[in-house]
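Figure 6 in text form: structure in, sequence out.
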């Protein structure tokens, strides 16, 4: 993307990467993640942005795009969706959520490896593990799946449905990319999400799992750059 002349901003969500890591699982709410991410838009005064969202970036980034339309011109969605309280999750996703619920010291690198179609190797796995010095620092990673399991009457689900309703009427350019081998959010989920938005089915990338940016990173970058062109 930078080779194509685009400015790229790669934020770490609170609790991940080099961001601060509150150790109270209850600190990590949907509203708080959206509010923290919104400060990035304001602090950098981003305008004309293309949001590229993946996994948990979807509920956060798509809501931000709806709530701050003057800053976001285009959307790229990869293996993601919205919290509505009614979304159906796969058996593999529920198995993952149960594992997270039972495991205080999450093996972050291992989970990424299992979510890839091609094992990215020890060095990449170690890079995913590196930001977390101990089990307590993984509170954010442990909190996310539980947020998706809330019922339809919660404030989070209502915010997600408002976002979905707004995106149905939204005509900003949108590109959807999906990993053909994503066992957690399979392509059928992407097709259903695209249909709910009134958009074409996702472009499916072969030999790509849930972490398609690891499996097909260069191809994804090229596809987005071409689309922007």
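Output sequence:
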């Amino acid at each position: 993307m930078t080779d194509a002349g685009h400015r790229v901003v790669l934020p770490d969500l609170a609790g991940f990467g080099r961001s601060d890591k509150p150790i109270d699982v209850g600190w990590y709410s949907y509203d708080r993640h959206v509010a923290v991410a919104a400060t990035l838009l304001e602090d950098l005064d981003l305008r004309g942005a293309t949001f590229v969202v993946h996994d948990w970036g979807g509920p956060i980034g798509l809501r931000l795009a709806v709530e701050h339309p003057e800053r976001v011109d285009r959307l790229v969605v990869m293996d993601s969706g919205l919290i509505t309280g009614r979304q159906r999750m796969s058996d593999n996703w529920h198995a993952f959520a149960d594992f997270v619920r039972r495991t205080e010291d999450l093996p972050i690198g291992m989970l990424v490896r299992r979510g890839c179609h091609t094992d990215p190797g020890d060095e990449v796995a170690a890079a995913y593990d590196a930001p977390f010095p101990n089990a307590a620092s993984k509170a954010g990673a442990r909190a996310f799946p539980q947020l998706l399991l809330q019922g339809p009457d919660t404030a989070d689900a209502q915010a997600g449905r408002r976002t979905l309703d707004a995106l149905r009427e939204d005509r900003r350019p949108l590109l959807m990319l999906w990993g053909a081998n994503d066992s957690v959010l399979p392509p059928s989920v992407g097709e259903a999400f695209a249909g709910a938005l009134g958009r074409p089915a996702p472009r499916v990338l072969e030999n790509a799992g849930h972490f398609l940016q690891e499996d097909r990173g260069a191809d994804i970058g090229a596809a987005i750059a071409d689309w922007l062109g």
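Caption detail: The first strand starts at residue 49 and ends at 55.
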